[in-house]
């Protein structure tokens, strides 16, 4: 399956890298590599993430880091909607009502 990132997801990734990178460039590389690896693995295991309250959106935790990857599976692609820190307001995250 093809991967597609929404513009908000790209902004989320840029913000994660910038925030962590301001404190630890090496830490930012590790976190971003973990997120990237998990997203790429979705091509082989698209149902790896848990369902959210919205049945079209799934959530994958980027362990050991506290980041959540929100995505949607369509017939042709996996759409990455957001990458958020787990401590953020759950009601503001994709798939939550």
From TrEMBL:
Keyword Signal: no
Pfam families, per the entry: ParE_toxin
InterPro entries on file: RelE/ParE_toxin, RelE/ParE_toxin_dom_sf, TA_system_RelE-like_toxin
UniProtKB keywords: Toxin-antitoxin system
Coiled coil: none
Ribosomal protein among keywords: no
Superkingdom of this protein's organism: Bacteria
Family: Belongs to the RelE toxin family.
Protein name as it appears in the record: Type II toxin-antitoxin system RelE/ParE family toxin
Taxonomic source organism: Ferranicluibacter rubi
């Amino acid at each position: 399956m093809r991967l597609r990132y929404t513009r908000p997801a790209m902004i989320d990734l840029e913000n994660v890298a910038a925030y962590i990178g301001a404190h630890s460039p090496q830490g930012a590389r590790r976190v971003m590599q973990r997120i990237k690896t998990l997203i790429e693995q979705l091509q082989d295991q698209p149902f790896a993430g848990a369902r959210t309250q919205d049945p079209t959106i799934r959530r994958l935790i980027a362990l050991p880091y506290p980041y959540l990857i929100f995505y949607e599976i369509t017939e042709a692609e996996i759409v990455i909607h957001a990458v958020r820190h787990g401590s953020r307001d759950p009601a503001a995250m994709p798939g939550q009502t």
